[in-house]
């Protein structure tokens, strides 16, 4: 799991961003001072550091220079300063990117993903997430909130295919060809319906009124995702 250190003395801000990023599958550790962040990085190197400029025991820019010079970990600076000279100072101090408050969580998530891609080809935490549903392909596990789902292999593959194609109408023929090893050529449509019904009982709070798996009559099915989270952080 991708590890992110968040060095920020604003407790409410740190808690809000941590909650949002953890829902994306990242593992977040928060530190409120330069000293605490420095000691944590020396002990265990993260995949990314989110770093506030103004900290109670020192200058975030100085810590950024230390991290860039020794740890080699990507740093995303977060600050209320939004002048061009401030951005230049951040980048010259070794920051890989810079984001000024207020900002949307969607933009922050996109910049984190971009930095992780540049670092080593990793653009996500390995989780597929939609609402309260999370799926980890490598570990072959899926969760509804914090409860692990008991899925058959076919149900797992079906859920994975839906999460990879959120908000898209998937034709029955597409699903059969993708999920069943035979390519769907010898699988009856009723088999798909049965597996959809079983999956709904496991991922939906009320399978008779599905929130996620929608039937598109005459065509197939659609996984309805929540709208992208757009929250201004001050």
Automatic annotation (TrEMBL):
<keyword id="KW-0597">Phosphoprotein</keyword>
<dbReference type="InterPro" id="IPR011006">
    <property type="entry name" value="CheY-like_superfamily"/>
</dbReference>
<dbReference type="InterPro" id="IPR001867">
    <property type="entry name" value="OmpR/PhoB-type_DNA-bd"/>
</dbReference>
<dbReference type="InterPro" id="IPR001789">
    <property type="entry name" value="Sig_transdc_resp-reg_receiver"/>
</dbReference>
<feature type="domain" description="OmpR/PhoB-type">
    <location>
        <begin position="124"/>
        <end position="225"/>
    </location>
</feature>
<feature type="DNA-binding region" description="OmpR/PhoB-type">
    <location>
        <begin position="124"/>
        <end position="225"/>
    </location>
</feature>
<keyword id="KW-0805">Transcription regulation</keyword>
<feature type="domain" description="Response regulatory">
    <location>
        <begin position="3"/>
        <end position="116"/>
    </location>
</feature>
<dbReference type="GO" id="GO:0000976">
    <property type="term" value="F:transcription cis-regulatory region binding"/>
</dbReference>
<keyword id="KW-0804">Transcription</keyword>
<dbReference type="InterPro" id="IPR039420">
    <property type="entry name" value="WalR-like"/>
</dbReference>
<keyword id="KW-0902">Two-component regulatory system</keyword>
<protein>
    <recommendedName>
        <fullName>Stage 0 sporulation protein A homolog</fullName>
    </recommendedName>
</protein>
<keyword id="KW-0238">DNA-binding</keyword>
<feature type="modified residue" description="4-aspartylphosphate">
    <location>
        <position position="52"/>
    </location>
</feature>
<dbReference type="Pfam" id="PF00486">
    <property type="entry name" value="Trans_reg_C"/>
</dbReference>
<dbReference type="InterPro" id="IPR036388">
    <property type="entry name" value="WH-like_DNA-bd_sf"/>
</dbReference>
<dbReference type="GO" id="GO:0032993">
    <property type="term" value="C:protein-DNA complex"/>
</dbReference>
<dbReference type="GO" id="GO:0000156">
    <property type="term" value="F:phosphorelay response regulator activity"/>
</dbReference>
<dbReference type="GO" id="GO:0005829">
    <property type="term" value="C:cytosol"/>
</dbReference>
<dbReference type="InterPro" id="IPR016032">
    <property type="entry name" value="Sig_transdc_resp-reg_C-effctor"/>
</dbReference>
<comment type="function">
    <text>May play the central regulatory role in sporulation. It may be an element of the effector pathway responsible for the activation of sporulation genes in response to nutritional stress. Spo0A may act in concert with spo0H (a sigma factor) to control the expression of some genes that are critical to the sporulation process.</text>
</comment>
<dbReference type="GO" id="GO:0006355">
    <property type="term" value="P:regulation of DNA-templated transcription"/>
</dbReference>
<dbReference type="Pfam" id="PF00072">
    <property type="entry name" value="Response_reg"/>
</dbReference>
């Amino acid at each position: 799991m991708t590890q992110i250190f968040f060095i920020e003395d604003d407790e409410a801000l740190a808690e809000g961003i941590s909650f949002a990023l953890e829902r994306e599958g990242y593992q977040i550790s928060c530190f409120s001072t330069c000293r605490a962040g420095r000691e944590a990085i020396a002990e265990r190197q993260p995949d990314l550091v989110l770093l506030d400029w103004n900290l109670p025991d020192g200058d975030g820019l100085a810590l950024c220079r230390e991290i860039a010079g020794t740890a080699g970990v990507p740093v995303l600076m977060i600050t209320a300063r939004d002048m061009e000279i401030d951005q230049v100072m951040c980048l010259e101090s070794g920051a890989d990117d810079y984001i000024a408050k207020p900002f949307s969580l969607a933009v922050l998530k996109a910049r984190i993903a971009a930095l992780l891609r540049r670092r080593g080809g990793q653009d996500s935490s390995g989780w597929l997430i939609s609402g309260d549903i999370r799926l980890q392909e490598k570990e072959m596990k899926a969760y509804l909130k914090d409860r692990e789902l008991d899925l058959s292999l076919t149900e797992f593959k079906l859920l994975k295919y839906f999460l990879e194609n959120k908000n898209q109408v998937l034709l029955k023929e597409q699903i059969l060809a993708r999920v069943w090893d035979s390519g769907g050529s010898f699988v009856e449509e009723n088999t798909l319906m049965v597996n959809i019904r079983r999956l709904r009982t496991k991922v939906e709070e009320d399978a008779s009124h599905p929130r996620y798996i929608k039937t598109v009559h005459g065509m197939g099915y659609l996984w309805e995702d929540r709208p992208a989270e757009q929250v201004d952080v001050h």
